[in-house]
Amino acid sequence: MSTPDPQDFLDLDGQLDDAERDIATTVRAFATRRLAPHVADWFDAGTIPDPRGLAKEFGELGVFGMHLSGYGCADAGDVSYGLACRELEAIDSGVRSFVSVQGSLAMGAIHRFGSEEQKQQWLPGMAAGEVLGCFGLTEPDSGSDPGSLRTRARRDGADWVLDGTKMWITNGSVADVAVIWARTDEGIRGFAVPTDSPGFTATVVPRKLSLRASITAELSLSGVRLPASARLPGAQGLGAPLSCLNEARFGIVWGVVGAARSCFLAALDYAKTREQFGRPIGAFQLTQRKLADMVLDVNHAGMTALRIGRLKEAGACHHSHISLGKLGNVRAAQRVASAARSVHGANGITLDYPVLRHLLNLETVATYEGTEEVHALGLGQALTGHSAFR
């Protein structure tokens, strides 16, 4: 019997069907060829230099809204979408966010809550990467408590007028359409806002130390006037945007497995080739213990992601399952990235190796779309029946 493959120690990919394996292989090949040679430079520069060009390539690859059906979307299934996220985040969390914000948040909201006219207007172009979208829920004073958002939408005749500010919006400054969540007299509602609307402005957030190979913006809406047809008719109440976030969190559950795998494999390669005291550092007990802990975390996280994916495809996935996955898998990825950085020693702090870049990115991943505290309390509520939020 052969020694297990370090890249997939438990042969989890052996649990995939042929179509799922093909998708994972295709996305990994694209990511290795097109993204890996450039991502360190993008991170160093603090941006994606040609987001529209990259979006068209992602559209050709078929990853935008790939788990959605119709309107040019691939209808590839939840596990297939998760595998794509895994392979993209193995390169960088920022490029996975680029895809998941477009597909799960912006496209997902329009696909689930939009009118047929809105779906026809936006989704085919978004699936092809010709139209970019963003998702505006978080505000400067409303992060973990989205129910306290202050952005307002008021009726003015047949129109709606929106005023407010959104913060930490991925793709915000390059988007063609922004899904904006606002408080109305009838409760929280969603709107598909063309970003060329008068009164809409987007400002890039500067000086980020994490998720730098990504575009993050602050959105300002000052008297943005929209026709009644811009409101997403199926979106009523806070549950609507939260359900979209749940879809994106599912991508994170899978994505961080890729980040962890990348860090582990980098550390393993380094431990085999770096010599100290006349021996490869991988021959020392303390380094082997670090590598053993890493491979445990990578494979446990992979099992969690696959199980949640199968539950989701069976229609049996509760939102607390995804909270468990995000909380546990992000923690595991952070442990792996930190240990991998230590294996690399001083070399680990440079962009010549991926480990610190992943570690810094994971600080953001641990925070956005639900902090670890929020997910822990969500699990606590599922276990006890008592909410600790109010």
From TrEMBL:
Residues 134-223 form the Acyl-CoA oxidase/dehydrogenase middle domain. Residues 236-382 form the Acyl-CoA dehydrogenase/oxidase C-terminal domain. It catalyses: glutaryl-CoA + oxidized [electron-transfer flavoprotein] + 2 H(+) = (2E)-butenoyl-CoA + reduced [electron-transfer flavoprotein] + CO2. Pathway: Amino-acid metabolism; tryptophan metabolism; Amino-acid metabolism; lysine degradation. Its EC number is 1.3.8.6. Residues 18-130 form the Acyl-CoA dehydrogenase/oxidase N-terminal domain. It comes from the Bacteria. Keywords: FAD, Flavoprotein, Oxidoreductase, Transit peptide. It is an enzyme of class 1 (oxidoreductase). Its cofactor is FAD. Pfam families: Acyl-CoA_dh_1 (PF00441), Acyl-CoA_dh_M (PF02770), Acyl-CoA_dh_N (PF02771). Belongs to the acyl-CoA dehydrogenase family. This is glutaryl-CoA dehydrogenase (ETF). It comes from Allokutzneria oryzae.
